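User: My advisor, Dr. K., asked me to get a structural model of this assembly before our group meeting. I'm new to this, so sorry if the format is off. These are the inputs:
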Amino acid sequence: MKYWLIKSDPDTYGWDEMKKDKKTFWDGVRNYAARNHMKDMKKGDLCLFYHSQLKPPHITGVVEVVKEHYQDPTTEDDRWVAVDVKYKRSFKNLVTLDDIKQRKGLANMVLLRISRLSVQPVKKTEFDTIVKMGS
DNA sequence: GCCAACGTTGGC
DNA sequence: GCCAACGTTGGC
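Assistant: The format is fine. Below is the predicted structure of the whole assembly, which you can bring to the meeting.
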């Protein structure tokens, strides 16, 4: 099982909608590196849900991959894919970007190195640390 | 609103 | 296949 971090600008799609919908398709990725990560996602993988553009930016909770990649329904262009994710759990404490920066074990997260990548892999140890921080 | 980082496009 | 120009993302 793998772990990921997926970003969403709440103006486009926020955690409240995620909770309400229970399940959604994750589309609109137009970046090859992010797309390749989506193609690696397997059913049952867990993703941290990251709110970008907020003050402060933060992780709100966890979602689970329930359907592996398929053609992105929002475009004719067959280069792009979508996956389905379902709501798993909300964090009691939001884990902010600053919290992540402060935490020693998380200094090598992709999030801090390639800030613009919207779908990125997360190590199990990083995932566990963040879940602990959020609980 | 600004700016850095970086991906994409298009001319050559 | 290089590289300049341009657009977008995302933190601050």
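One thing worth pointing out at the meeting: Chain A is about 25% helix and 35% strand.

User: Perfect, thanks a lot.
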